[in-house]
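Issue: copy button drops trailing tokens. Both records pasted manually instead:
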Amino acid sequence: MTVTTLAGVGETVRHVGERVEERLRVVLGDDHDRYAPLATAAPDVVEATRTAALSGGKRLRPALAFLGFVGAGGAADDPRVIDLGVALELLHTACLVHDDVMDDSPTRRGLPTTHVRFEDAHRRSGYAGEPRRFGEGVAVAVGDFAFFSSMGLLVGAPAAAQREFFQMAKDVCVGQYLDLLAAAAPADGAPDPEVIAGYKTARYTVEGPLRLGAALAGRLADLGDALTGYGRPVGLAYQLRDDLIGALGDPAVTGKPAGDDLRQGKRTLLLTLARRHLPPDDPAARALLDRVDTGRLREAEVPAVRRLLRDLAIHDHVAGACAALAAEAVEAIAKADLGPAVRRHLIQFAGHVADVSAIDALPGRPAGTEGAP
């Protein structure tokens, strides 16, 4: 899913991603020129940020911020909303680069992750010290650079927009910590996966960008509750959808190794949903999911978990849960003063996120289940 294929969005929204990318290239180009005279390697951090930010991605957050802004009465050609979109993309880049270190992910969008790339460069160059620590250290610096760059783009934004942005960023950090804790702590003391998804994903993927757009237009006070009521359930549906792709997706399509969340012992919304549908007389299946929860799943067992999820018809259960979340979201904005065009776009987007039948990266689904509720 990209900005150009978001279901039902207007022609202007389809160009938001392009405008954000153009501005992003200018911002990082200026940074490269600033640091190039210092030392030959000085722009490496900038170039790594550029690679991470421009190697793909949905540009979803800028599009939603734009809808929040225009829905709140902002002008579609206001350059401030493009700078806000770039700030969101740089924040997202920072989170992804750091997340890849925490998850020890080897690839992102089909390319080596930042820490892996610099680890390999250290090894090839024969530098002193440990390659892994060097790679991870550079990735921390790259993520920090992306975040600080995002802050710079908010200069001049209304105070309400700045407060919303930084609160959202802090919420993501707390969500990330809870995600790490959930993978490490005993199951009976682990944080609720829905709380994690609410802070780590829903907050800055859907709810936050919409609220930021409204704040930039000066209307967060009267639209904030409705946008939160929409953004949280759609964000949870988005996370469920992402969990489904992560567990069962084809790496050739997703750009990430299949089953990474299973290997890492992440207690995702998907696994919570799967547990609700486990047969009570199948202790072996329950034990298999328990090994995922405790991080003790062996590599050879990953295919077995994927088969179990398919046997449980998890795709159809996700479809039902996402449809219910989308309905909740639509109800939340039914009477909001957003204008008919923006409301229609948001309703269509909620339906798009809920339509998991559109996911074509799930090998092995039983025939005839497409679009099942």
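Record 2 (pasted manually too):
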Amino acid sequence: MSLKNLPPLNVDVWRGPNIESRHTVSAVVINSSGQIQYAWGEINQKIYPRSSIKALQALPIILSGAADRFAVSNIELALAGASHNGEPEQVEVIQQWLHRLGLSENDLECGAHLPGYPKAAAQLMQSGNHITALHNNCSGKHTGMLATALALGEGTQGYSKASHPVQIMIKKLIEDFCSEQIHETDIAIDGCSIPTYYLPMKSLAIGMARLGHAENLIAAYRQAAEKIYTAIVGNPYFVAGTDRYCTLIMTALNGRALVKTGAEGVMFATVPELKAGVVVKVHDGTVRAAEIAMSFILNELGLLDPQSAEKFCKIPVRNWNQILTGRITINSELKT
């Protein structure tokens, strides 16, 4: 089916019998040759991919030789593509990885914040230990960048700057996978201090499609993409964590798709069996709308079984007493 120029998706939040909030969503499903399968809203608009693009940012770990030189495990590769919860198991892996590199949390340039998982945050505060950059949800990605810098023979200080060879390499890879040149006016700074690039949704979707089916790209890119994809979908807990959408949906998909959230209502997916990439952008930046929109699209693509579709596409809303107060639904010319 080829459907173009559909209206934007509407994600409605109901309280009782009435709609209380509405989130407008643009989304696109495209294959690695650039053929559009589904499109809602304005897919040529530029967006910042934020953390949704971490799988592409992890490719230099393979391409630089860092993975072989430092015996990087699949769990570590998954953490390089993660926005993790800061749970103890996740933090411990990153700490050990840094130690193997001869580095520490002091070398991370992502900044520090409390673990995103409330239980992990409470445990850290009760322990009396300090919050460090290890707890930053991007610490795995940054450790991968440090490993890449070492493998390239470059200095590690300033690895997060756009002028550093690691970031130049990442920028070139994004351009190649997305078939889109990045201009100076497209470059901004992400929440973890590395560059983020303002690119058309359609181009970003092509890049994600090629992650799973690197059509017309060189063999080294194809091999690196396969390794990153396999590591991420094979270790969904380390990509996000307890009670997180990316972990739950990838577990349900059992390797059929890579799904990664980003800030400001952005979410990407890679579906190798369909040679497809998916990009979702919620215009008001709301995460809950991105999750149900992505679930709706994955279901339209035939990837969810009936039980998973019920779980991820029809979301109940409950108050602090766990009383059902409403629901979250999605409106489209296509129906689940």
